[in-house]
Design a protein that fits this description.
Largest sheet of chain A: none
Order of helices and strands of chain A: HHHHHHHHHH
Shape of chain B: flat
Radius of gyration of chain B: 36 Å
Oligomer: heterodimer
Shape of chain A: globular
Number of strands of chain B: 0
Radius of gyration of chain A: 18 Å
Structural class of chain B: mainly alpha
Strand content of chain B: under 5%
Number of helices of chain B: 10
Strand content of chain A: under 5%
Order of helices and strands of chain B: HHHHHHHHHH
Chain lengths: ~200, ~210
């Protein structure tokens, strides 16, 4: 059976029959988007991996409670959002730079918690520029409130519609629109220098 | 009114800006496109949103460490089919299961022995006996409840209270009952380890699906 061709809902049905390969396929299908979202919320690689792991464990351990009228990915993102926001609230995690967690006291720990950026650009100059720009953007995103950060990442990076973001975050549609509007404005302000450079070029 | 001569006065709304800056998401009415073409402010807003969207789209998707899915799978407990769950429960509680089986077997044995002592009993007469007994039991229960209510003075108390009800006392009573109900519901949710936010979002989703 080729699990890659199955829809999310089919895989969930197979998981409910204890099919481990279906569960593995769902993990592999969603580990990148969920990890990306969680990482951009907590900005610590090890912590993001632990939280992402917990997201999947909670998802599968509560699969019988999953309402099939809901998109599986929305349910997964909802669990990821709730878990990460709960963590941020409890631990009062500081907003940090892409160069690693502020709690990293050794170079190894700094390396472990820092964000590794990849680029498909061939020219070294373009690669450096792309890394630099991505770094600025990541730093700007990290300065947003967690709610704004989640909303704008789900909208622009994951391409989720407003209604789905509203369900994931558990807030009214109007609030999601406000979050996204304010997040865009704050990003625009935070990236003002780079933005103007881009306009000049 | 002829729609062709309607003139748009305000600037583009957020959804309209998105439709122009992030194509593929929505269809934009011709009037809005025409406005965007003529309005410098809206053009600037569209360009800014296009730039931001392109920058965010270009963010590298991040990848957890190699072997991440293996680590997850080691901790995952997938739901088991009911047959497997029954078998597991039997294995876990072997003594209790054996006792339950022995009890059930003894009950069936005693019943069969009793029936064998009375050859006039047929399945029909046994069924009729059971129906008659259960109906009699139900009626006696209803009669007992009625007798209790009548004898306890609850009716007299209710009549007395009804004579003194004012709009304020009725409101206070209803509010109190509602608050106690909501508090009980919250306690029930916390006992069942259900997040109340999940219930509200679930209800909202159901409304949306039905609507």
């Amino acid at each position: 059976m080729n699990y890659k061709e199955h829809s999310d809902q089919d895989l969930v049905r197979l998981c409910l029959k204890s099919d481990e390969r279906a569960a593995r396929e769902l993990v592999e299908r969603f580990e990148r988007p969920v990890f990306s979202l969680v990482y951009r919320m907590v900005r610590d690689r090890e912590l993001a991996e632990d939280l992402t792991q917990e997201v999947f464990v909670r998802t599968f351990n509560n699969l019988e409670r999953y309402d099939r009228s809901y998109k599986f990915s929305s349910w997964l993102f909802k669990i990821a959002y709730n878990l990460t926001v709960d963590y941020l609230r409890k631990k009062q995690v500081k907003t940090i730079s892409m160069h690693g967690s502020p709690d990293a006291v050794t170079p190894e720990r700094q390396e472990a918690t820092s964000l590794s950026l990849e680029s498909d650009e061939e020219s070294p100059d373009a690669m450096v520029e792309a890394r630099e720009l991505a770094g600025y953007l990541e730093d700007a995103i990290a300065q947003l409130r967690p709610e704004y950060r989640t909303a704008i990442l789900l909208r622009h990076v994951e391409g989720r519609p407003y209604e789905e973001i509203s369900d994931i975050m558990g807030v009214p549609l109007g609030t999601v629109k406000t979050y996204i509007f304010r997040a865009r404005r704050e990003l625009r302000d935070l990236l003002e220098d780079r933005w103007d450079d881009g306009d000049d070029e | 009114m002829n729609k062709n001569i309607q003139v748009r006065t305000g600037h583009l709304q957020a959804e309209e800006l998105e439709a122009l800056a992030m194509p593929g998401d929505h269809k934009l009415p011709a009037r809005s496109s025409a406005h965007a073409a003529d309005c410098d402010r809206c053009q600037r807003d569209v360009e800014e949103l296009q730039t931001l969207h392109a920058l965010l789209q270009a963010l590298t998707p991040l990848q957890p460490v190699v072997g991440f899915s293996d680590r997850v799978m080691q901790r995952v407990r997938l739901p088991l089919p009911w047959r497997v769950r029954v078998l597991q429960a039997v294995r876990r509680h072997q003594v209790a299961t054996a006792a339950a089986f022995a009890g059930a077997a003894a009950a069936v044995g005693v019943g069969l022995t009793w029936i064998a002592r009375y050859p006039e009993l047929t399945p029909m007469t046994i069924a009729a006996f059971l129906v008659q007994r259960s109906t009699a039991l139900m009626w006696s229960g209803v009669m007992e409840v009625g007798r209790f209510v009548y004898g306890s003075g609850v009716l007299e108390t209710a009549q007395g209270v009804a004579g003194q009800v004012t709009p304020v006392s009725a409101f206070v009573a209803v509010a109190t009952v509602t608050l106690i109900g909501l508090a009980s519901f919250r306690i029930l949710l916390s006992l069942m380890e259900i997040d109340p936010a999940l219930v509200t979002s679930h209800l909202r989703l159901r409304r949306r699906v039905r609507g």
